[in-house]
């Protein structure tokens, strides 16, 4: 399920973020999430939204929009910020994992498996945080059928924020699943039933079993490793930065909408 959502949501949603760099000419859609090609955002798009959402007292939240802001939207936004705090550590793990994969001493040992397991835990935690927003969007107080302009604005902003959060979680989860499949395949090649049969052709192997051929292509939205330690660390750093920037931009836009409505609820 995660893989299906990632492939459908990421291609469309992230292309919009890349286009936000300011170019007017349409860009090719074949690789909307190409690693290392995302242009830096301007200060207005990338600067953090530093205002704190105002407290909304129960005596002042008499309107439907203010009640939804207090009881549904603000808790959802806090979940998004919690996910960002988790992803700070994930961004550190990504280049460290690449370094282990490229190290002949660790590429097939328990250190790589442990690092991959932690990335999988990160993906699961990010998805749990995203589900808080998913449940909020199913709350009748944020119904898409309402004619209340405040509620409609809150819902649209929360939908965009959820899309960004769940896309990031799905992409990380897909990466972990692909790496798990790769490590399982390497285990079969090294220790499985095919090992003895492959021994006869060992003289014709260009790359040793513990030195897989470098990737020449990568699936859409996935990082491409070269097998060179420093280069792959940088690739994974760039991928983590791109994921962060995509979500951060959606959060800034949502925060501006939420803050404007929340201010009106304190008067």
Low-confidence stretches: 1-49, 188-212
- N to C succession of SSEs: HHHHHHH
**Backbone CA Rg:** 22 Å
Number of separate helices = 7
- The tally of strands reads 0
Summarize the main sheet. none
Identify the quaternary structure here.
single chain
Helix/strand structural class: mainly alpha
Round the mean pLDDT to the nearest integer and report it: 74
Helix content: 55-70%
Distance between the termini: 44 Å
Q: How much strand content do the residues show?
A: under 5%
General description of the model:
This protein has 267 residues and is mainly alpha-helical. The chain contains seven helices and no strands. Helix 1 packs across helix 5, helix 3 (64-102) packs antiparallel against helix 4 and helix 3 runs antiparallel to helix 7. The chain is elongated, with a radius of gyration of 22 Å. The relative contact order is 0.19.
Per-chain topology:
Blueprint: H1 2-19, H2 43-46, H3 64-102, H4 110-137, H5 149-191, H6 195-199, H7 229-264
Helix pairs in contact: 1-5, 3-4, 3-5, 3-7, 4-5, 5-7
Quick summary:
The chain has 267 residues and is mainly alpha-helical.
Overview features:
single chain, 267 residues, mainly alpha, 0% strand, elongated
